[in-house]
Amino acid sequence: MDEGYITADGRQIGGVVMEMKNITLRFGGVVAIENISFDIREGEIRAIIGPNGAGKSSMLNIISGFYVPSEGEVWFHGAKRPQMRPYEVARQGIARTFQNIALFEGMSVLDNVMTGRLTQMKSGLLAQALWKGKAEAEETANREVAEKIIDFLEIQSIRKTPVGRLPYGLKKRVELARALAAEPKLLLLDEPMAGMNVEEKEDMSRFILDVNDEFGTTIALIEHDMGVVMDLSDRVVVMDYGKKIGDGTPDEVRNNQDVIDAYLGVSHD
Amino acid sequence: MVQTQSGADGHRSIPALLDRNAKQFGTSPAYREKEFGIWQSWTWAETAKEIEALALGLINLGVNEGDFIAIIGRNRPYLYWSMVAAQSVGAIPVPLYQDANAEEMAYVLDHCGARFVIVADQEQVDKVIEVQDQLHQFEHLIYLDPRGLRKYDHSHLHEYSHVQNQGRAAYDEFINELTARRDKLDYDSTCVMMYTSGTTGKPKGVVLSNRNVIETAKSSSEFDKLRQDEEILAYLPMAWAGDFIFSIGQAYWTGFCVNCPESPDTMMADLREIGPTYYFSPPRVFETQLTNVMIRMEDASKLKKRMFDYFMAHARKVGPAILDGKPVGFLDRLKYRIGSFMVYEPLKNSLGFSKVRVGYTAGEAIGPEIFDFYRSLGINLKQLYGQTEATVFLTAQPDGEVRSDTVGVPGPGVEIKISENGEVLYRSAGVFVEYYKNPESTADTKDSEGWVATGDAGFIEEATGHLRIIDRAKDVGQMASGEMFAPKYVENKLKFFPDILEAVLFGNGRDHCVAFINIDLTAVGNWAERNNIAYASYQELAGHPRVLDTIQEHVEAVNKSVAADPMLSGCQIHRFVILHKELDADDGEMTRTRKVRRRIVEEKFADIIDALYDGSATVSTTTEVTYEDGRKGAISATLDIRDAAVVAVTQKMAAE
Question: Residue B652: pLDDT band by 50, 70, 90 thresholds?
């Protein structure tokens, strides 16, 4: 079971990176997630889909350590993950983007991407303020990583532009750049294509595939657009009303009667 | 005719010039490229090493002498090196337009029978793979940027740096072979083959020899006294002969530095950072820049706008005269100085033209108003006339003799004459060898005495010896009334308005002229925003009544100015229509160098032309469009046709 598998396009997928075991999440009396288990394997693109209110974002927040499950366990790299603060999760190599873009609007694209490098900076506040010795070398090294990502995502022309002046599609790309700057092992994308036009979606899809291909990053994403999900992902978890109703390759999921019912509705007669 | 310049004698190929530059200017920069936010640079000595490694790698891959190597991608040092490496191993580089679709690419690749193709990235790799079944001689593909290509079958696919590494590893094995091949190159060996975009028919492969390229580079460099410390920005398509002669011919002859932008989108920022001393561009780039300046001035505060208008008016009055060193009164000079400080210098700086010593516009006629705008700022912008078949340079304007209506005097070693039917003919050291695999066209173009027909109608001004071009010879026609029909003259006047991107005039053999207009989305969009006009698409904006009103004003203004010219007063526009789509090279309506293909436009939009002539007030039409990825679609629209006021031709004509 732990050897992984080979994808349709011939990529070797590794062992389990993260495993969700019987996760339940309650807000007071509301059950947002009910007894869900699935795993994420190294190098794969794993999608979580479902209609509105299915609990997808809650699930992503549990993976990112922002929510603590009411019941169940999160296993990361073969060990149970204790309760953590978000920055501790970040240090473990998990980065994310947000459904409602959360960038520093007044700062330039480059500076926003550089903030993604924060967890990698070791020199102290004083050293950074004086910009001497190690801090200078560190900044240069971090800038290099940031520039490689800017080049990768083809946003050179807006490097110095304040994020607030950018159109929506580009902001999404900048957010991806910032997440990538942390050089994550696991990248969480919360609706990366929400509100985009077809061309922007195509671009974004290509970048997601390229990130996975080029850096070997494991990607877990939530998405509404079924077409995009089916094209991108290796395996898909389908949620509805907090329950898991399907899990498998895009083709398996597509033919799953429960999934079809959840998306298209069932007649009650 | 051949004069010698220090050390250059006997260097009869580009690789030989590279060798000279590596020895003479070893530590000066030869190439720069902005990557990862920093200008990376290579000296001539480093360049020679890089090219040598690639050349060895190409021999290792089995490139034979006489093979064709196609090169596709945006301007990058690595691709320029590919051209010189190809020459070094006795192969012939064939640069292609990177935005050509797979079909166009297939034609050219098959026509030259390229065994090897060197491309920039995955996009180009995909295109070549898509058409490889149609290519009989194609064997290996070398790519620069490995992104997204990891999963591809690598049996015929090689990464550029790997080819170089293999070349370096096989140094001892192949260096003698490389030296031998390089030494065999002489003035008659082929330097490069460029495909002409061709406003009619299939592209033709123009074969240029080392003699063509080096002699032309030499005489043109001397004409403008180019120096080893010039800086140029290479941003025009590598498949355009102009870029080849500037970025390879002249660069290798004089040893100056070629700077490549980070990406096409950053070109303007990179231009400002580099501050080139020698700059060239088709009129369209100057038009776009001017449009952007005007748009930004519209958005500027009232005070700034007034200051700009005031000093620009003064610059128009005395700027060109000051630039040409003609006498100008003291007060005017002083005012120009103040204007320099307040307006001209900051403007030049933001355009990236602060250091330009010599600037050229070529490729098409430039609107006089645009031309004068740049010259009045003190930018030494000049006109150049030439074509691929002549290795670009035919005539150029000497410093101090610059006018917007001529294209200058014949360059050193160029002979120009006008045929009986008014067509411009030339003979020079730059005259191309032949059209590849097309002896009929070669014979049609080049006569037994070596005179080449340009296809342009023009005349030489007796007083000054300057050449003036009227239009493409085949486009110049007659109206039904017998008056001359010269469409470009009117179109250029229209295109000076920032709102108008493109115009096509019809009227050959008819009793009056009509026009198609393309609006400039940047300029008109900005205007719409300021006037609270909502629009969802190009088509909707183009059909907006207020846009039509504005364009009508422009057309009527042009009619007035055309009417003032007794020879061309018949070319006034009686009716016009704003097209629902931009004319596009992907749809075959323009060449890749963005010249309108008149015949194709005429055929494709025949229904609209009919409506323009039959007096109908609207026309419904459906047009097929091709998307960038080659898919096809259709857009349909109902277009309003407007009548424009024309100025009655005065009785004077008849009286004369």
Answer: very low
The pLDDT score that the predictor gives to residue A57 is 87
- The alpha carbon of residue B298 and the mean position of all alpha carbons in its chain are separated, in whole angstroms, by 29
pLDDT per position as a tens digit, A36-72: 999 999 999 999 988 888 888 889 989 888 888 999 9
Q: Is the CB of A151 less than 8 angstroms away from the CB of B265?
A: no
Mutation for B interface: A155, A157, A217, most B CBs within 10 A:
A157
How close is the nearest chain B Cα to the Cα of A266, in Å? 37
Residue B11 Ramachandran class (φ > 0 left, ψ -120 to 50 alpha, else beta): beta
Of the listed ranges A199-208, B197-206, B645-654, the least confidently predicted one is B645-654
Q: Is B148 on the interface with A (CB under 8 A)?
A: yes
Domain span including residue B409: 381-474
Domain count, chain B: 4
Q: How far is Cα B70 from Cα B61, in angstroms, rounded to an integer?
A: 15
- Taking residue B643's Cβ as centre, other Cβ atoms within 10 Å add up to 13
CB-CB: which of B147, B148, B262 is closest to A156?
Answer: B262
Does some domain include residue B286? no
End-to-end Cα separation, chain B, in angstroms: 48
B2 in any annotated domain: no
B590 in the same domain as B505: yes
B536 touches chain A (CB under 8 A): no
Strands of the sheet with B452-460, listed across from one edge: B415-418, B423-427, B452-460, B467-472
Do B267 and B297 sit in the same domain of this protein? no
How far does A151 lie from chain B, in Å, by closest CA? Answer: 6
Is B343 in the same domain as B441? no
Render pLDDT for B601-651 as a digit per residue (tens, 0 to 9).
999 999 999 999 998 888 888 888 887 777 788 888 889 999 988 887 654
Pair (B220, B242) in one structural domain: yes
Residue in B39, B126, B147, B629 to test binding to A, most A beta-carbons within 10 Å = B147
Helices (H), chain A: 56-63, 86-91, 109-115, 125-130, 134-152, 168-181, 198-215, 226-232, 250-254, 257-264
CA distance B452 to B340: 45
B195 lies in the same domain as B316: no
Q: Is B10 in CB contact (< 8 Å) with chain A?
A: no
Which amino acid is residue A90, in one-letter code? A
pLDDT at B324: 85
For residue range B510-526, list pLDDT tens digits in order. Answer: 889 999 999 999 889 98
- Three-state SS for B478? strand
Same domain for B127 and B51, yes or no, is yes
Work out the pLDDT band at B655, boundaries 50, 70, 90: very low
The last residue of a domain, from among B474, B498, B529: B474
Å from B36 to nearest chain A CA?
5
Query: B185 and B59 share a domain?
Result: yes
The pLDDT score that the predictor gives to residue A253 is: 87
Based on the domain organization, do B118 and B251 belong to the same domain? yes
On whether any CB of chain A is under 8 Å from the CB of B151, the answer is yes
Q: Establish if B632 touches chain A: CB-CB under 8 angstroms.
A: no
CATH number of the domain to which B537 belongs: 3.30.300.30
Of B147, B148, B266, the CB nearest to A156: B266
- Would B321 be classed as within a structural domain? yes
What domains can be seen in chain A, in order of their start residue? 1-93+184-269 (3.40.50.300), 109-182 (no CATH)
Identify whether B3 is part of a domain. Answer: no
Chain B residues close to A156, C-beta within 8 Å: 37, 262-263, 265-266
